[in-house]
Amino acid sequence: MLELFLAELRRSWIQLLRYSTEAIAGIVITTVVFYGLFLSARYIAGPNLQFGDRLDAVVIGYVLWTLALFIMSDVAGNLQREAQTGTLEQLFLSPYSPPRLFLTRALASLTIQLTLIACILGVISLLTGTRLSFPPAVLPAFATVLLGAYGLAFAMGSLSLLLKQVQQLLGIFQFALLFLLAVPSETWSGPMRLLGLLLPMAPGAGLMRDVMARGVPLKADNFGLALLNGAIYFALGLTLFHLAERETKRRGKLAGY
Description:
Keywords: Membrane, Transmembrane, Transmembrane helix
Transmembrane segments: 21-45, 57-76, 106-127, 139-162, 169-188, 223-244
GO molecular function: ABC-type transporter activity
Pfam families: ABC2_membrane_3
Domain ABC-2 type transporter transmembrane: 58-238
Number of helices: 10
Shape: globular
């Protein structure tokens, strides 16, 4: 397993070096879009606008949304590209099971993506003046978000296996992701509070906003709910991927495009 991870990590690093222009363009575009929204909001509200910790919370949601998009496109996009190049069947014939193979590839790619996300977060912080804290408690909260993100990514990957072309679905789904990660569902009350706990990645994103932007310590009960949320969506995504793999093989469409 370690050998597979190191091989995929080397593959991701080589791709980053060979297509570094695309990575730099992604950082620039993502940062410019957020900064444009920031300037627009400040202009509309006038010179007396005081964001407080709300700006920090919005930055966290936006950066998490960017990371989730990377993860989605990494799993579903990889499956689609492998199908286009005709190498998808070779991957499914490898000694490793397809879910393990693509999960290891996604985790190896995550190490590269986190570097890009750190660059985006650093530039946004410089432009907007946000001051986020990074206590150790942010790591378990971040892990719950990753679980939910990979669960949704494998769910989209199952559609990619069956349909081959999912660009339009990914384009529509990214707006739903923005709602899940940018809206402060942790501030909801009553029935809406229950809905916020059921939405994928929302409890973990709320924990990260509390810890990084508001200075609230990590509570065991809130972390347990976020972990349960992430674990359920991760298990659901892997289950859908396994079912899609079996159905694709049954139809004989694994090698087709």
